[in-house]
Amino acid sequence: MAKPNKKGPVKTVGIYCNRCRGPLYTYRKGGKGALVKCFKERIVKDFTISPVTCPQCSNVFARETLIRGVPAFKIISGKVFMK
User: Fold this and answer.
1) Is residue 52 domain-resident?
2) What is the pLDDT of residue 82?
3) Residue 52's domain spans which residues?
4) Residue 13: which residues within 8 A CB-CB, separation 6 or more?
5) How high is the pLDDT of residue 15?
6) Cα–Cα distance between 52 and 64 in angstroms, integer?
7) Digits of tens for pLDDT over the chain (83 positions)?
8) Does 73 fall in a domain?
């Protein structure tokens, strides 16, 4: 399979914890669909201390994985929202 575009989209969205409403990432997202995965190379600003844990409430919101050979975070449904 093809790798995702390195540069990626220009539009950025804020990703927040659904439990405490704390900021997690600023992410360059492509398309209009739901947030299913976050490629690490598209994260603009990272507010987390440990990779997949909310810094305020310690909620685990994703799993680290490889998608199409590229490191990514697979988002657990209902744990985050985006604006």
Assistant:
1) yes
2) 94
3) 12-82
4) 26, 27, 29, 35, 82, 83
5) 97
6) 8
7) 677 666 678 899 999 999 999 999 999 998 899 999 999 999 999 999 999 999 999 999 999 999 999 999 999 999 999 99
8) yes
How many domains is the chain partitioned into structurally?
A: 1
Query: pTM score, two decimals?
Result: 0.88
For 10, the token pair is: 């220009």
Which pairs with CB-CB distance under 8 Å and at least 24 residues apart come from 61-64? Answer: 61/17, 61/18, 61/24, 62/38
Q: Please indicate, yes or no, if residue 2 is contained in any of the structural domains.
A: no
Classify 40 as helix, strand or coil: helix
> Whose structure tokens read 């704390």?
22
Strands 37-39, 12-17: pairing is unpaired
In a domain, 60, yes or no: yes
Per-residue tokens: 60: 């685990």
Contact 80, 24 (CB under 8 A): yes
HSE at residue 37, side-chain half, CA atoms within 13 A, is: 14
